[in-house]
């Protein structure tokens, strides 16, 4: 893998990233810090989301939706057990929720 470009990063240090950091030339400075507890949920969720996105993106396009839903269900079940947060088996995204009885409600799409 190529060296990391110069810049400021806010990434969890994975095993792969740690290896890349270890290979930086001596004239390149690196600074890491402990994950702050106040930021843990956000940073870990962002990292897991990026990993899931890459995994689904690597699948053949025709398989992405079904495999993505299955993966999401497995992850949610593993993390918190069977909950209402697991995605349904149908592949529908909620774009906007509106009160169907509100005559002034118009789609913003």
What does the model show?
This protein has 109 residues and is mostly helical. The chain contains 3 helices and no strands. It has helices at residues 15-22, 37-57, 64-80. The protein is flat and about 50 Å long. The chain starts with 14 loop residues before the first helix and ends in a 29-residue tail after the last helix.
Order of helices and strands: HHH
Number of helices, where a helix is a run of at least 4 consecutive DSSP H or I residues: 3
So what's the overall shape? Answer: flat
Residues in β-strands, percent: under 5%
Defining traits:
109 residues, single chain, mainly alpha, 42% helix
Give me the secondary-structure topology.
Elements: H1 15-22, H2 37-57, H3 64-80
Give the structure's gist in a few sentences:
The chain has 109 residues and is mostly helical. It is 42% helix and 0% strand.
């Amino acid at each position: 893998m190529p060296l990391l470009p110069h810049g400021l990063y806010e990434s969890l240090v994975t095993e792969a990233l740690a290896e890349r950091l270890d290979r930086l030339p001596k004239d390149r400075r690196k600074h890491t810090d402990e994950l702050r507890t106040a930021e843990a949920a956000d940073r870990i969720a962002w990292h897991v989301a990026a990993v899931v996105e890459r995994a689904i993106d690597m699948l053949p396009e025709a398989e992405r939706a079904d495999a993505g839903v299955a993966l999401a269900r497995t992850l949610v079940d593993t993390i918190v057990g069977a909950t209402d947060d697991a995605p349904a088996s149908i592949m529908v995204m909620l774009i906007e929720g509106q009160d169907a009885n509100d005559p002034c409600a118009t789609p913003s799409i």
